[in-house]
Write a structure and sequence with these properties.
Blueprint (H helix, E strand, L loop, with lengths): L2 H14 L2 H7 L4 H15 L4 E3 L3 E4 L1 H25 L7 E7 L4 H14 L3 E7 L2 H9 L5 E5 L10 E9 L1 E6 L12 E2 L3 E2 H4 L4 E4 L4 H12 L8 E3 L2 H10 L3 E5 H6 L6 E7 L5 E8 L6 H10 L2 H12 L5
Parallel strand pairs: 3-4, 3-5, 8-13, 9-13, 10-11, 10-12
Antiparallel strand pairs: 1-2, 5-14, 6-14, 7-12, 7-13
Helix pairs in contact: 1-2, 1-3, 1-4, 2-3
Length: about 325
């Protein structure tokens, strides 16, 4: 039995919660994955996986094996990167995650990191806040970009590196005489949240953390919002405005991503002014790989921080 491979299959099953998807992620057949897990159970003399018609979770013994597997695979990665690179020329894969609304910033970060260190292969994933936190705790993610306000005030397993403060805008199609042909996105006068609530809005679905922030701002303004459309895709938020008669509430990083679209107008939302701190997070108790060390150095670089702020705020409400 290849113990390291079997541990990878176990971790993949934990991440995907499905035998077929885990096998696909590991580039093997489902029978091969099942056989490897049974061999792992035989090796340790315990039942690791609860099986029914589908994956039903791990046994208590399986949870212990899983935790050890995650640590062993991480230590293997640390050693592999130590042996194949040095501090000046880090090499290896780096798994990065971001909440959907921060993906434009993460994409820029990953591109700059790869340009600075060609030996690093960033893997950029869009994930919910809960999935980011779980990924960091299980060591399946190296670095996450998300809502640092969700972290415990003191203690906890995660450490944060502040990046920028997000501001919010009403995105709509410009009216007659407002759009400037060839001028791209136009920045309009501020709009009150209460006024925005009366427009036909496309918003994120209720289970997403960003939606809870937006709903909180509407409540603070004494407004009740009934979306005309909901989606779990930030791309759909922007495209619903581009393609139709809907408006949307977007953080500055997403508004910045559609700067090149003519006929769109972004209005800073006020009354209240909603600001959300965004930062990188990593597991404080896990030894960083050389690739992660390089990423953290970039995350604290003054030039990068200015760049992130420039592409996340536009003209922030006063």
């Amino acid at each position: 039995m290849n113990l390291l491979a079997s541990l990878r299959y176990l971790v993949a099953l934990h991440e995907h919660r499905h035998f077929g998807r885990a096998a696909q992620a590991c580039h093997i057949t489902q029978p091969a994955l099942s056989n490897a897990l049974r061999a792992l159970e035989k090796e340790f003399g315990v039942v690791v996986v609860r099986r029914g018609r589908s994956f039903e979770g791990f046994t208590p013994e399986g949870e212990r094996v899983l935790a050890t597997a995650q640590r062993m695979l991480h230590e293997h990665q640390v050693l592999q990167q130590d042996l194949s690179s040095d501090a000046a020329h880090p090499r290896g894969t780096l798994r990065l995650g971001a909440v959907p609304t921060a993906m434009p910033i993460l994409a820029r970060f990953a591109a700059q990191l790869q340009a600075r260190h060609p030996g690093i292969v960033p893997v950029a994933l869009s994930m919910s806040s809960q999935a980011l936190e779980a990924g960091l705790e299980s060591i399946s993610l190296d670095l996450a970009l998300g809502y640092t306000e969700r972290m415990p005030a003191r203690g906890g397993p995660l450490r944060a590196w502040p990046q920028y403060v997000e501001h919010y805008f009403l995105l709509r199609r410009a009216g007659p005489g407002q759009a400037v042909p060839g001028g791209g996105l136009q920045i309009g006068a501020p709009m009150a949240w209460a006024d925005a609530a009366r427009l036909p809005l496309c918003l994120l679905t209720p289970e997403m953390h960003n939606r809870s922030l937006v709903d909180g701002a509407f409540r603070s303004a004494g407004a009740t919002v009934r979306p005309a459309m909901e989606t779990d895709s930030v791309l759909t938020l922007a495209l619903s405005v581009v393609a139709g008669e809907l408006c949307s509430v977007l953080p500055g990083a997403l508004v910045d991503a559609v700067r090149g679209h003519d006929g769109l107008q972004a209005l800073p939302l006020t009354g209240p002014v909603l600001t959300t701190p965004i930062g990188f997070m990593s597991h404080r108790q896990v030894q960083p790989t050389r690739a992660l060390d390089a990423a953290l150095a970039l995350a604290q670089d003054a030039d990068w921080l200015r760049h992130a702020t420039a592409h996340s705020g536009l003209l922030a409400p006063g």
